[in-house]
Structures are given as structure tokens and as C-alpha cells.
Amino acid sequence: MEFLNDLQTYAFLQKAFVTSIMVGIICGVIGSFIILRGMALMGDAISHAVLPGVAISYMLGINYFYGAVFTGILTAFGIGAITQNSRIKSDSSIGLVFSAFFALGIILITRAGSATDLTQILFGNVLAVRTSDMWLTLAIGSIVILVVILFYKELLVSSFDETMAAAYGLKVRFIHYAIMFLLTLVTVASLQTVGVILVVSMLITPASTAYLLTNRLSVMVVLASFFGAFSAVIGLYFSFEYNMPSGPVIALATTALFLLAFLFSPKQGIIFRKIQAFNRKKLA
Amino acid sequence: MSDIISVKDVSVSYFGKQVLENVSFQFTSGHLIGILGPNGAGKSTLMKAMLGLIPKDKGSIEINSKPIKDFRKRIAYVPQRSNIDWNFPITVRDTVVIGTYPKLGLLRRPKKEDKDWAMQCLEQVGMQDFASRQIGELSGGQQQRVFLARALAQKADYFFLDEPFVGIDVSSEEVIIGILKKLQNEGKIVFVVHHDLTKVKNYFDELVLINKQLIDAGPVHKVFQAENMTRAYERPVLMLNDLEVQM
């Protein structure tokens, strides 16, 4: 309750609150498509690979957004180029490219700024969200949500049956890179809240939780957004009340929700499955 | 008006390995065409090359002397069952509604009439009672019927099915072949990748027999001959005479 009072009192907390909710929503939305397309690792890769971009922006004195998007996209293309032009499998090329970018990023950041900046970027500090960060997140969020609403049909069919999508003339490779681009935007928007290392938990875990609870993609996207936003607010609360880094708290909150679904989901949860199996045995 | 699909001199290779070599044939409307050949003969590759899903080294595929690319929205493709993620969060009804997407184009959503049409297509394959199920909850034959319903929902003129009869029950197989024959009678062109030799004569009226190269193409009674089959399968096809008896 005290938290609610503080939320009304402090402007910085309001900014953090709005930003966390938006980050939770868009991570859930993009995360749903990422896990259904089997690209969970790609989410991890891009989130790590934005680090050198952030460092370079910092050195040049421009908004970190530009550099982060640049190296994020570069990574997506790099991974694609290695997979398509050699016998290296995609999981290996993902690991190969993102570790290189991440390593470069750490060196650049330690050269460019101080150790505190590095910690903030790596683990997130939702309380340090500036007004400009909030607007950036809201702008990115609106773009992501708009694109997904407008092209829901195309995203659905290309994720479900890419061959059919290609057969009727959709540019499936373009759609792939468009999703990579949105993923990069989402990652950049999440930097302040969860940090580079744990963005992947916001992308994959709420979407996976939702995946256990529904048989409809549209419902999955909405549930994933809700779980993401809820976890982000929990992260904010602990960060504010107990001075904990927001990223790890958010990551654990998403995991707790996942465990609940994993145990108790009516269709997929292991407890109900055991009960069903037991009842079937009794009948037989 | 009768359409002509012609495949001219098509060659395809994967990583420098030749998979199809100078394949040519042509068919007109109102035929149900089996694409036949041993494992690794390039049957699925041929179908994918025809649809422009994989790059060709050379050759062309034309409908009425125009590139097949111009006809994409009039083509329905049913992939091999093994290519689908059956855990995808989608219901049977929504899977069939996807069939209306090509004609809707960008930015337009399926409306009530599209959804009603999808239900009609589901009824044609006898799967309307399963509309709300998740697709993974169905048997193999039921899944194949749902995908055929999706193809029907496309209101296409050219149908391409990759191994639709693999691992499915007898009644589903009957439903599917019944619908394919109906399409044939309506003047559509239906290509089916197939590898079970036992029912070839009952199912198809035309055949493409390949093993990397074209062995023969044309009416079943002309192509489905001992000599051709031996050449395609690189061994005597012993069952052939027994099959004749069964027919």
C-alpha cells in the first residue's frame, strides 16, 4: 500500500512504472513469436549483441538507441550469413556471433565509461529510467504493437507453416528479418528495465508460460504480455522497496509464474496430467 | 477453358549435388497426377521447384505460357505432415481459416463469411466436429484432412499435395482421395507426391515417374509399365503383376 502512495508521489517511480509495463507487454508479444519460431536463442543473441552499439553511442555522445539497433541488426545478418553460407548449424553460429559482439561490447564499455554504467546495462536499473527513456520505450512499444496488429495474419501463417506462406507469395525471409528488427527494438527498450543479460527471460519465460495455458496464438500473445507486465511491476517493487537490481527480480518473477503454469496448467500442467493418468488407470 | 502447366528442362541441385536433371512434362486441366519414384528420387524437390520454393539451376515452370509466379494465389499447397509443428497454439478452425489468407491479401482480416466458408470446407472433409480442437490432438489422418480443408478454403485451381497418404487411416485416405477426384472432375489440376505403388492405378489418371531424371510422364496405363518401373526403381518391381491382379 505504501508503494501505491509512493507511486503517486514520486515522478521517477511513475516513469519507471510506465516503462516496466510497456517493456513487459512488448517482450510478451515478440517473445510469443520468437519461441514459436524456435528462435529463443536468437533473442538471447541479439540482446547481448546490442552492447557494443550502446558503448559506441556512448563514445560518440549520441542516444544509445541508434548504436544498439545497428549492432543488433548486424548480428541478425551475421548469423544468417554464416548459417546460409557454411555447414555451421544455426545454434553454433548464434553462439559464435553473439559472444564475439558481447566481448567487444564489454571492452568498449569499460574503455568508454565507468563500471557502474556497465552494471546498469548488464543487469538493469529500472529506477534510473529518464523521461527520454520512457518516451523511447513508449514509441517502440507502439510500433511493435501496431506492426503485430496490422500483420498478425502474416506473422501467424509464416510462424505456423512457412512453406505455405512462401507458396502463396509471402516474403518469408523479409518477415524473418522484420521480426529480428522488432526484436532488436524490444531489446533496446528493455535495456534500462531488465538489462542485457536477462532480457531473454522476459522474452522467453512469459511467452512459454502463456504457451502452456492456451491453444490460441492471440490468447497466448495477450497472456504473455500480461505475465511480462506483471513480472516487470514486481521487479520494480522489489527494486524500490529493497534496493535490489530490477533485472534479476523480474527474471525470477517470470520464472515463478512459469512454475505455477508448469505445475497447474489444466491441459499441460504435470499435476493435472498425473491426475488424469491416475483416473484412466482406475477406470481401466 | 483448359489450362496447361508445363515444366521445361528443370534442373535442381543441393550443395553441388544434382537432385533433378532436365525434367520436362506438361499436363492440362482435369487431371489427378501422381508424382512417383523411389526414395531420394527428388519427388518433393520437384514439387517445391514447381512452386518456386527452392532455387532452380535452370528451366522454367509455366501455366498457359506465363511464369507460375503470376498464379501464386490460385495455388494450394499441402506440405508433408512432418514439416508442421503440431504443438502450435492453433485450433482446427483457425488452421482452415488460414486458407482464406492468400485472397484476403495484406491488412484485411478474415470476416464472418471467410470463417463460415472455412467451416464448410471442414464439413467437406468430415472434420466439423473437431473445429475447436488444437491440431495436435488429432490423429494423423484427421490432421491431413484438416490441411486438405485448408487447401479447399483457398479456392485454388492448382493443388499440390506432398505425401498426403503417409501414416494415415483407411477412412481418411478414402475421404481425401474422394475429394481429390472431385477436384479433378471440376477441372482442377492436382499433383500428388506419392510413393505407395499399390493404389496407383485406382488413384491417378496421369503419372510423372522420376528418378533424378524423368523416366516417363503421361496417362497411367502408359507410364505404369514394368519396364518403366524397373528403370525408375533400378531393380525389378516384382509386385507389379500382383498389383495388376488386385486392380
From TrEMBL, chain A:
Keywords: Membrane, Transmembrane, Transmembrane helix, Transport. One of its GO terms (cellular component) is ATP-binding cassette (ABC) transporter complex. It holds the Pfam family ABC-3. It is a multi-pass membrane protein. InterPro entries: ABC_BtuC-like, ABC_TroCD. Signal peptide: none annotated. GO terms for biological process: cellular response to iron ion; response to zinc ion; transmembrane transport. The chain crosses the membrane at residues 12-36, 56-82, 94-114, 134-153, 174-191, 197-214, 221-240, 246-264. It is found in: Cell membrane; Membrane. Belongs to the ABC-3 integral membrane protein family. This protein is probably a component of a manganese permease, a binding protein-dependent, ATP-driven transport system. This is Manganese transport system membrane protein MntC. It comes from Sporosarcina luteola. The lineage of its organism: Bacteria, Bacillati, Bacillota, Bacilli, Bacillales. The gene is mntC.
TrEMBL record, chain B:
Transmembrane segments: none annotated. Pfam families: ABC_tran. Residues 5-237 form the ABC transporter domain. The keyword Zinc does not apply. GO terms for molecular function: ATP binding; ATP hydrolysis activity. Keywords: ATP-binding, Nucleotide-binding, Transport. Belongs to the ABC transporter superfamily. This is Manganese transport system ATP-binding protein MntB. It comes from Sporosarcina luteola. The gene is mntB.
